[in-house]
Amino acid sequence: MQKILIKNIKKLVQVREDGAFVVKGKEMDSLPCISDAWLAIDNGIIADYGTMADFPGIADWKDLQVIDAAEKMVFPCWVDSHTHIVYAGSREQEFTDRIRGLSYEEIAQRGGGILNSVKKLQNASEEELIQQALPRLQEMIQQGTGAVEIKSGYGLSLESELKMLRVIKKIKEHSPLTIKATFLGAHAFPQEYKHNKRAYMDIIINEMIPMVAQEKLAEFIDVFCEQNYFSFDETITILEAGKKYGLIPKVHAQQMSHSGGVEAGTRCGAISVDHLEYVNEADIQLLLASKTMPVILPGAAYFIGLPNPPARNMIDAGLPLAISSDYNPGTSPTGNMNLMQSIACIQYKITPNEAINAATLNSAYAMNVEKELGSISIGKKANILITKKIPSSDFIAYAFGSNMIESVFLNGTLVK
Length: 416
Ligand code: NIG
Ligand code: FE
Fold this sequence. Notes:
The protein folds into two domains: 3-76 and 377-414, Urease, subunit C, domain 1, CATH 2.30.40.10; 79-366, Alpha-Beta Barrel (TIM Barrel), CATH 3.20.20. The chain has 15 helices and 16 strands. It has helices spanning 92-99, 104-109, 114-122, 126-142, 158-174, 197-214, 232-244, 261-267, 281-288, 298-303, 311-316, 337-348, 352-359, 361-366, 395-398, and strands at 3-13, 33-42, 45-51, 64-68, 72-76, 78-80, 145-151, 178-186, 220-225, 248-253, 272-275, 293-296, 322-323, 384-389, 405-410, 413-414. Helix 4 packs across helix 5 and helix 5 runs parallel beside helix 6. The longest helix is centred in the middle third of the chain and has 18 residues, at 197-214. The protein is globular, with a radius of gyration of 21 Å. Residues 82, 84, 252, 326, 328 line the site of fe (iii) ion. N-(iminomethyl)-L-glutamic acid binds next to helix 3.
């Protein structure tokens, strides 16, 4: 594989050799950078970097591709630790219904919402699902994303959940992105089990989890812990059942009410609890005593008009914070991580530095890739982006709605 040298970089951003895999509290507002820098990539890996003033001679570097990044910045690619990008069709009718006054809950009660996507997915073939997911991933790459977690959860039957997870596996085999799969059979109760929840729980625990583990189709298990979805006790039961098969817990927590998702997640040793619109002081204390990453999903809160998660309070209390897109057809039909950072900055008073830490190293932690991605560190995968000419790193969140990403390298190969 070719060696690449990027030189004259205005700023090399998020450079870490301190062994830190999580950034929290006050540290989140500091972003280690090198001005006027160079970066070398060898065999898909970050090989070295430094300042142009100390640039070593390159006479003996063979097969070297040299890129001049004058006035441009280099960042590690965004890591998106929470998406549902394998889905069939779209749900803009529900979007319009909400504009006319219906709530997300009312739409769900009429058989819309998650169950609308379940119907569509059950009728789609694996090939159709792949063909619909690929352009979404392609667009995410164009916007600077280099790693994506993808959940099941629009199947809700053994057959369809496995279909979704096999689709994710195929995408993973063919995509340059780093991809991780999450089993989310507990996303909603299927219509036919609305009055027999125990029976669906049994299917998840006795049929789905063992098959998912046997076929090695997922690394994580997630539950939508919410009123009318899965209760606190049901969430714990499912996460514990998954843990017995080696699946790492995650929770859709406290998006629409104070449902106990943070307590369930921290108690089960979840790697992340996501959404967090209804987090209170007691939850912050639970998170402080845990290794669980709080993940906010600004696109979903914005798109369906939820209250802002108390992200500022969480950081001020000393917590780490990650940002992801929640890309899905119902609550966040975009995977644009630049926009996610802008929303977090504008609506939640997160600084651009905090947003960049949240969208790189901390979101890498939330998908268990912090040792290979999320910062410019020697030995990490060369998933990096080069910006257009920008005056400062704050400009990415500031220029909301614009794409300031000029090129993207995944595993050291130019893909944009
Ligand atoms: O993360 N909250 C639950 N799940 C998704 C929404 C899924 C849907 O509406 O299709 C979310 O927001
Ligand atoms: Fe989600």
